[in-house]
């Protein structure tokens, strides 16, 4: 055979193997991380994790009840504040501001906020909420999470509303519907699955966020539902337990990490299934 | 019948006017609510900048530009001496090493997924990589602390140290002793973390290549590699670089994956197997117990990080927007 053909084929095969190796490398990490997580997490997971509060140093019984409930509360409130705000902002970008200079500025800033380091958001909320309130509080943590939720929801809302075919809007307008009703009754309904996907993805994003909570909600060894005081939450509890010298705390940290990961994976997969339903229709 | 029609005639215009005015009010209210929410996005950015500058002001006045090139970090000295050189060095070194690992691997996976992989395998692998992107960073940090750190310190690090022992420059870069907590361990965890971002964006970007171009190249007998190198990469260069910059922005600001395993040492050492610190790790581990000038210094570090990531992310977005416009035309 022509030597040029031989060398071209050889190069092609080498590159194919390198790419295969890269893919194997990436998937191996995922498998390794999930394997250790399940292996260590399941041994630590029992009923006490859900029914008892975080133990004091050195103790060998106790669970994560206060941290689990605190995490759920803060995530729900954070998403509850951030999601509507993001939804409306995304609506403005997609529906009203298509030919507005402001829109491109907002979109650009939003994209930057989307990937801004979350610890900076923590510093911002510390300066804007914790200092004026004279103390760490759960509500500061909720606000920090809300600030992270907003750009995610803005982005997905704008994208999803952009996918709604214009003739739908034109037909509604031709029937005499005012603009706001066209958006709420027609565009929102047509894009509903996509909008929910966005909110689920945002929830998944904040469910495991740790850095912005380190100095806003802090953590609390005891059970508390008071939003104006510090509140226990899973990520910060894990953060504290990992670096502790107590074996039982480390075991609890693995159990908590498994819970967070399962939640986040479930939310991500749920969002994906919903998104897939949308496109197959 | 006649009566009814009279009633309707009388009520008709009234209801109509009322409905119309309700529509009008609803319309205007909805418009302003959405507009206000959209503007609040700008206010958040403004709030971040203002609160960082206000918080950093005492340290900025005390140390001025010298903050940037002072290496000593002694918050409990009297007066406290604070310098950003250590964390800034650590941030840049870990990000650069992480990108050196993640870029080739991430692009390799993207090429594999778009050109080589059998169709039935594309979805599962793509899904696995995307799920990797969704795992919270504290899980990576924890895993690095318990599993990767000990593994590297017992196998990879001693190997590299013995291989490069006595080699002029590299000998200092890979100097011992092996350590559970080091810049290199943090870099590897960062690389694993940003890998999915690079892959996901590259796959999206590779999909913007018009099939006609690729088919034409395959039609004249090009191999997979030649199509990738001569058609796909040149067509998508801007987008790929944009995706890489986006991943770099993540790596620069990543906190929880790094904090556990970097060792929190403000001293700059030539070896990448020595402990160090990054801006975000320094803030995460010291902020809650800091006050006064120390706290202000940490906020100033945060401001530096924000400026750094802002420019990297802005450049990334501009590049991706350029590609989108090209794809739109």
The class by helix and strand makeup of chain A works out as mainly alpha
| Main beta-sheet strand count, sense and barrel state of chain A | none
Q: What is the end-to-end distance of chain A?
A: 51 Å
How many DSSP-defined strands of chain B? 0
The rounded distance between the terminal residues' Cα atoms of chain B is: 62 Å
Query: What percent strand of chain A?
Result: under 5%
Individual helix count of chain A: 11
- Runs of chain B in which pLDDT lies below 50 for 5 or more consecutive residues are none
Q: What overall geometry of chain A do the principal axes of the alpha carbons give?
A: globular
How would you characterize this protein structure?
- The complex is a heterodimer of chains A (281) and B (329).
- Chain A is 77% helix and 0% strand.
- Chain A has two domains: 3-44; 50-280, MetI-like (MetI-like fold), CATH 1.10.3720.10.
- Chain A has helices at residues 3-44, 47-51, 65-96, 101-114, 118-133, 138-163, 166-174, 179-190, 192-207, 234-242, 247-280.
- Chain A is built from eleven helices and no strands.
- Chain A is globular, with a radius of gyration of 24 Å.
- Chain B is mainly α and 329 residues long.
- Helix content of chain B is 77%, strand content 0%.
- Chain B has helices at residues 2-63, 85-116, 119-134, 137-154, 156-163, 168-173, 183-206, 211-219, 224-253, 256-259, 279-286, 292-328.
- In chain B, 46% of the residues are buried.
- The mean pLDDT of chain B is 87.
- The chains are: A mainly alpha (281), B mainly alpha (329).
Quick summary of this structure?
With 281 residues, chain A is mainly α. Chain A is built from eleven helices and no strands.
């Amino acid at each position: 055979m022509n030597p040029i053909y031989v060398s071209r084929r050889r190069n092609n095969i080498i590159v194919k193997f390198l790419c295969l190796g890269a893919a194997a490398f990436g998937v191996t990490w995922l498998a390794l991380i999930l394997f250790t997580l399940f292996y260590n997490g399941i041994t630590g997971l029992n009923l006490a994790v859900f029914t008892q509060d975080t133990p004091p140093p050195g103790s060998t019984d106790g669970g994560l009840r206060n941290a689990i409930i605190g995490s759920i509360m803060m995530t729900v409130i954070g998403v509850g504040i951030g999601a509507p705000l993001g939804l409306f902002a995304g609506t403005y970008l997609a529906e009203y501001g298509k030919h507005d200079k402001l829109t491109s500025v907002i979109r650009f800033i939003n994209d930057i906020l989307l990937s801004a380091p979350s610890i900076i958001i923590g510093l911002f909320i510390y300066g804007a909420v914790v200092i004026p309130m004279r103390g760490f509080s759960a509500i500061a943590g909720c606000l920090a999470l809300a600030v992270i939720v907003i750009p995610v929801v803005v982005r997905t809302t704008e994208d999803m509303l952009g996918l709604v075919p214009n003739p739908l809007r034109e037909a509604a307008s031709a029937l005499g519907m005012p603009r706001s009703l066209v958006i709420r009754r027609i565009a929102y309904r047509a894009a509903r699955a996509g909008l929910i996907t966005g909110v689920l993805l945002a929830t998944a994003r904040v469910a495991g966020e740790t850095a912005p909570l380190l100095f806003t909600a802090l953590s609390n060894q005891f059970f508390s539902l008071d939003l104006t005081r510090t509140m226990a939450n899973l990520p910060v509890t894990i953060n504290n337990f990992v670096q502790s010298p107590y074996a039982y705390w480390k075991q609890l940290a693995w159990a908590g990490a498994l819970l967070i990961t399962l939640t986040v994976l479930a939310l991500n997969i749920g969002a994906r299934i919903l998104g897939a339903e949308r496109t197959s229709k | 019948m006649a009566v009814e029609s009279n009633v309707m005639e009388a009520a008709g215009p009234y209801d109509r006017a009322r409905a119309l005015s309700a529509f009008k009010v609803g319309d205007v209210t909805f418009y302003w609510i959405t507009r206000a929410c959209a503007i609040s996005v700008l206010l958040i950015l403004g709030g971040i900048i203002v609160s960082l500058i206000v918080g950093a002001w005492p340290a900025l006045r005390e140390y001025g530009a010298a903050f940037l090139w002072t290496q000593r970090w002694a918050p409990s000295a009297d007066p406290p001496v604070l310098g950003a050189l250590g964390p800034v060095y650590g941030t840049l070194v870990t990000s650069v090493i992480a990108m050196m690992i993640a870029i080739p691997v991430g692009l390799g996976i993207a090429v594999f997924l778009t050109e080589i992989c059998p169709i039935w395998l594309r979805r599962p692998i793509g899904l696995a990589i995307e799920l990797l992107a969704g795992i919270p960073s504290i899980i990576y940090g924890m895993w690095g602390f318990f599993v990767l750190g000990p593994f590297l310190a017992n196998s990879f690090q001693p190997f590299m140290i013995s291989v490069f022992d006595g080699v002029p420059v590299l000998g200092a870069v890979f100097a011992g002793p092996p350590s559970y907590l080091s810049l290199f361990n943090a870099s590897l965890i960062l690389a694993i973390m940003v890998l999915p971002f690079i892959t996901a964006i590259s796959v999206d970007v590779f999909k913007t290549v018009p099939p006609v171009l690729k088919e034409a190249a395959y039609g004249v007998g090009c191999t997979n590699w030649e199509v990738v190198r001569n058609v796909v990469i040149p067509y998508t260069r801007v987008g790929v670089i944009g995706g890489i910059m986006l991943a770099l922005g993540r790596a620069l600001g990543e906190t929880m994956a790094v904090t556990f395993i970097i060792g929190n040492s403000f001293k700059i050492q030539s070896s990448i197997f020595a402990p160090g610190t990054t801006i975000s790790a320094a803030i995460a581990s010291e902020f809650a117990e800091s006050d006064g000038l120390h706290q202000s210094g940490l906020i100033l570090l945060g401001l530096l990080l924000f400026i750094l990531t802002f420019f990297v992310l802005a450049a990334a977005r501009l590049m991706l927007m350029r590609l989108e416009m090209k794809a739109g035309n």
